[in-house]
Amino acid sequence: MLWLIICFVLLVLIGFILVGISTYVGWQLTHPKRKALDDSPEHYGLEKQDIKFASLTGDVELDGWLLKPPAGARRENPVTVIMSHGYAGTRLEKGLPALALAEAIVGAGYPVLMFDFRNSGRSEGNLTTVGYLEKQDVRGAIAWVQEHISDKICLLGFSMGGTTSLLAAAEEASVRGVITDSAFSQLSPYLQDNLPVWSKLPRFPFTPLILAILPKLIGINPRHVDALAAVDQIYPRPILFIHSQSDDAIPWSNSEAMWLRHPEAFEIWLTEQGSHVGSYQKQPEAYTERVLAFLSKL
Question: Where's the AB hydrolase-1 domain (predicted)?
Fold first, then answer.
């Protein structure tokens, strides 16, 4: 009898330990440490306007830059490009870096708005929801552009920012088109298959435990982050999907699945080299040409 009691106590203790680890890691994933802004548009010869605007949730103020084309490069009534960064990053999206791409876009005559999501960079907030609340951050940026510049907008997002841009565009008719780089299609199945990439824990038993705990921990259901459904609402507006076939964080099949919903209206560019959000570094000229060609058609 004693050994049965000891086994039961050990099982309960192990269960508590596993739940405790899962809760801690889940909390860390939704409260990632902020990264500092250690670069600036001036290093790329760009003039910036510091801006602040509210997320449509109304509870956080977001910090960003507006980069305007020089007088000689300005187009008549161009689209404004709103860039959205990836998970646990900043507006700099250092893997590209985003400022280098912004330099080319601004040089071609398009204004660019770069900002930090909630709980990132210089923006307010203390919770990251991998798209659920961030969608309202993008919509806040859209509202700012509509008020201060024009109604012609293109969203350009990387990883989580790409998915979030699709979610926002589905609800904002003023968005003329979307460019995504390394986006995931649906958060819940993505996490079921790929959470160990971010948690650094074995799939079993931690992935099911973390996914069971997270909704209760932060009050957000990952199933609501569904870009695969969002692209149906964006159609027939154009989308350009960019994804490296060597991406080991978000498989390229995510972009392919979204493109296949409406291939007659959407474009896809699958690169052969480059890690997650790594296509620009491998082929900066081709990447820039693709982006500028897409913008020219909006």
Answer: 80-203
Lowest mean pLDDT across 18-22, 42-46, 122-126:
18-22
Provide the domain count of the chain.
2
Same-domain status, 211 and 242: no
Give a yes or no: residue 36 inside a domain.
Answer: no
CA 222 to chain centre: 15
Please spell the DSSP secondary structure of 181-241, one letter per residue.
ES--SBHHHHHHHHHHHHH-S-HHHHHHHHHHHHHHHHS--GGG-BHHHHHHHHTTS-EEE
Same domain, 4 and 117: no
Could you tell me the two tokens for 139? 């919509």
What are the tens digits of pLDDT across the range 173-187? 999 999 999 999 999
> Domain range for residue 14?
1-31+187-223
User: Residues 199-231: pLDDT tens digits?
Assistant: 999 999 999 999 999 898 888 889 999 999 999
Residue 38 is assigned to a structural domain of this protein = no
Residues 200 and 289 occupy one common structural domain: no
Query: Pairing between strand 239-244 and 267-271?
Result: parallel
DSSP state of 36: P
Cα angle, residue 122 at apex, residues 40 and 33 outer, rounded to 5°: 110
Q: How far apart are CA 233 and CA 172, in angstroms?
A: 10
Q: Within this chain, do residues 113 and 212 fall inside the same structural domain, yes or no?
A: no
Which residue, among 261, 264, 259, has the nearest Cα to 242 in the 3D structure?
A: 259
271: which strand partners? Answer: 244
Residue 247 lies in a domain: yes
pTM: 0.96
Closest CA to 233 of 170, 176, 281: 170
Task: State which H helix or E strand residue 169 sits in.
Answer: helix 160-169
Say which amino acid occupies 39: D
Nearby residues of 20 by Cβ (< 8 Å), 6 or more positions away: none
